[in-house]
């Protein structure tokens, strides 16, 4: 069993930065994929970024490429999402998730096994 806890959300002006953290408790195996998703009010949950726990390969949604960076610290069992040049359309609840299995399905939220409680990010214009 894995528990995930996000932190670092808040209110920021457009153009600003935030860093989200996701602390994992329990055993994270090398085959795990860690993802960040977000859900804006009235919209479906969408993929933001993913990272392979062992090799550290990364992937990003087109909407955040060049602005967001996902990373992990395996010693601390923590995944980060550095968000720069934030836009009002980035406003959402951000969720950390863990998937036991193939990298192939990293963008599909329905195929993740563990989820955090979410952290609110609000970007004002």
Q: Roughly how much helix do the residues carry, as a percent range?
A: under 10%
What structural category characterises the helix and strand content?
mainly beta
Question: What gyration radius follows from the Cα positions, in whole Å?
Answer: 13 Å
- The stretches of 5 or more residues where confidence is low (pLDDT under 50) are none
What report would you give on this structure?
The chain is mainly beta and 125 residues long. It contains no helices and 11 strands. It has strands at 3-7, 10-13, 18-25, 32-39, 46-52, 58-60, 68-73, 78-83, 92-100, 114-115, 119-124. The strands form 2 sheets. Strands 2, 4, 5, 6, 9, 10 and 11 form a 7-stranded mixed sheet that branches. Strands 1-3-8-7 form a 4-stranded antiparallel sheet, with no helix packed on it. The model has no long low-confidence stretch (mean pLDDT 95).
Q: What is the fold's blueprint, element by element?
A:
Blueprint: E1 3-7, E2 10-13, E3 18-25, E4 32-39, E5 46-52, E6 58-60, E7 68-73, E8 78-83, E9 92-100, E10 114-115, E11 119-124
Parallel strand pairs: 2-11
Antiparallel strand pairs: 1-3, 3-8, 4-5, 4-9, 5-6, 7-8, 9-10, 9-11
Notable traits:
51% strand; single chain; 125 residues; mainly beta; four-stranded antiparallel beta sheet
Short description:
The protein has 125 residues and is an all-beta fold. It is 0% helix and 51% strand. It has strands at residues 3-7, 10-13, 18-25, 32-39, 46-52, 58-60, 68-73, 78-83, 92-100, 114-115, 119-124.
